[in-house]
Specification:
The protein has about 325 residues and is mostly helical. It contains 15 helices and four strands. A hairpin with a 2-residue loop joins β2 and β3. The longest helix has 27 residues.
């Protein structure tokens, strides 16, 4: 009985509520459709949002630090396209992937530098980068669909490890590792102090600017990884990849309990729950026969509801304490 009473404190009231909502959604959809809990549909649910899930891991760090990264939706197709060009030119897949990931991280460093040196707000800096990268990717590819990659490259997006699709394995490993580091490692824990009060963090001797380089580099690097996986999964690379994904990623992170209004709060476990919630919702819309044109409407409503709910829970916890 005591364990049940202490459960909200251990897991977090927000996370417990989100777990309950996810369970209710699963039960409702399973009662509506006998195909919902089949192995094939579960894989569809997870694979349908796994790329956004990978990007959400990096976005969690950015938002906790008090920032925002809109450029992830352009880093993804940019990474897919430059990987595709290198593969078609005969470059070994490993070399092409490494160069792509380094290039993606450098995009994040550029975003952080705009904030650190020019004091440009991350929203403006990453918005400019998003538009620039998408235009650059369009100019490089001329809007064409790149395909004809070597067979060895397809394992990343289409292969399996222990019977589990490889992209899902990547997401699980990243979420576990980054979640543990965020919870246990001293260097990563300072993100909460920096996000809550960056000026106080500076005064206390923390390397705030250097930490922003790491955070935005991580976000762009994971978006680049998502781009590589997308090219491998679909066997092609196109400028249309990732359109609108920045909003889906931000929504998943905010639903998971990371406050977009003020930094310094959030967990990786919450983000995973938020990603799962979004994946279930999008699959439910498809299975219910609701037009895909309504997905953006649902996404916007969920983002607003999540912001209000997160802030309500934060204020309630402060009042209780």
């Amino acid at each position: 009985m005591n364990r049940i009473k202490t459960l909200p404190k251990k897991i977090g009231t927000h996370n417990l509520a989100l777990i309950t909502i996810n369970v209710v959604l699963i039960v409702v959809m399973a009662s509506i459709s006998p195909y919902f809990l089949t192995g094939a549909n579960i894989e569809v649910i997870l694979m349908g949002f796994v790329l956004e899930g990978i990007m959400a891991i990096g976005m969690t760090f950015v938002i906790i630090s008090g920032g925002i990264d809109l450029s992830v939706s352009s880093v993804l197709p940019f990474a897919a396209i430059i990987t595709g060009f290198m593969l078609k030119a005969g470059w070994p897949p490993f070399v092409a992937i490494i160069i792509t990931l380094i290039s993606s991280v450098l995009v994040g460093f550029f975003n952080a530098s705009l904030k650190n040196i020019l004091n440009v707000h991350p929203f403006i800096a990453t918005l400019a980068t998003m538009l620039t990268l998408r235009g650059l990717a369009l100019a490089i590819s001329s809007g064409a669909n790149l395909s004809g990659f070597p067979e060895s490259f397809f394992f990343l997006g289409q292969g399996r490890a222990l019977g589990i699709p490889f992209p899902i394995c990547v997401f699980i490993i990243l979420a576990l590792v980054m979640g543990l580091l965020l919870k246990k490692h001293r260097y990563f824990r300072q993100i909460y102090f920096i996000g809550y009060d960056p000026q106080a963090a500076k005064v206390s001797g923390m390397k705030v600017e250097r930490f922003f380089l790491f955070v935005f580099g991580l976000s762009s690097g994971l978006a680049g990884l998502a781009g590589v996986l997308a090219a491998s999964q679909y066997g092609a690379a196109h400028i249309s990849f990732g359109i609108g994904s920045e909003l889906r990623v931000i929504t998943a992170v905010v639903i998971g309990g990371t406050s977009i209004v003020r930094g310094g709060s959030g967990t990786m476990f919450g983000t995973v729950l938020g990603v799962l919630f979004m994946a279930i919702i999008y699959n439910a819309l498809v299975m219910s026969g609701i037009s895909t044109y309504w997905q953006d409407v649902v996404n916007g409503i969920m983002l607003l509801a999540a912001i209000f709910f997160v802030e309500f829970m934060k204020n309630r916890e402060k009042a209780v304490n």
